[in-house]
Design goal:
331 residues; 47% helix; Rossmann fold; eight-stranded mixed β-sheet; 15 helices; alpha/beta
Length: 331
Amino acid sequence: MSLHLNKSYLLLLSTCVAAIAVFLNYPPPPLSDTLKKWKQSGKMFNFQNNNIFYHDYGNENNEDVLVCIHGFPTSSFDFIKILPDLQNIFGRVIVADMLGFGFSDKPKVHNYTVFEQADIITYLLKSLSINKVNILAHDLGDTIAQEILARFEDGEKDRILLQSVTLLNGGILPETNFPKIIQKLLLNKYLSPVLMRLTNYVIFKQSFSDVFGENTKPSEEELADFWSANIWNDGYLVTADLLQYINQRHANRDRWVHVLQNTTVPLHLIYGPSDPINGPETFLKRFRKLVPNCSVDVLNTSISHYPHWEDPKNVSKHFKNFIKPILLSNK
């Protein structure tokens, strides 16, 4: 009798969770005109039976190429505010949604890894006949850039030749990266199936807004765009799988930090100091000590984890000051 009741309670609980999930996540929000235009103007390429969304701006014969690699939980749309400036600096700019993000495919049963995301960037560049590139990366994109840099320094056969790497706020040093509570909970294999299905716009908006500066938070319309791209094609169902990059950072810490310390490629960091995930007293102090060969620009104290969205003008200015001499020296 007791066993029968327990099964009944479990069935009832499962039904309630499923019903709440449907209520919270259905119907999916419509794309704004801005996001529709972004999606319609992009392209797709196939990587191991998965479609990857990207934009390719500029002249395909130009040798000054930049690839932008976005972070979690957003997409290449993050770079839209600085794209005009980037296009004025480079003859060609590539931005792509990583697998599981934005308008790229989001396979539900998949082992998402930093290594595969690096494979995707490399494959895309090779398919576009690009063998030499500069990188601008943010958040998870920083880690992907570190892996691409490690492959370059290892002299791998299919490596991409790197002219420079510029990093924005991210978990570059795993020991000074402090994920949000919701991210830690989603890494729990027992809680994540329920939490992913209970995620809604209100929860996303609160959690996501917290990583922006007090006076630089996205507008309601911008937050809706971030959410729409995130939830596209049931993206909320792969959140926990994508977050495995946090564990991968710790497991591969020596490889990814060591390469920053020893690379011959010019490195630059543009940093928002109000970042609650990578604070200045922990991250910046240690980074400067461990990676003294990397030049650093620190933005206004009001700027936080998304500097290219919060302060696009100054991010573009600092990036241009760093990259112009490098591009000129490669002529």
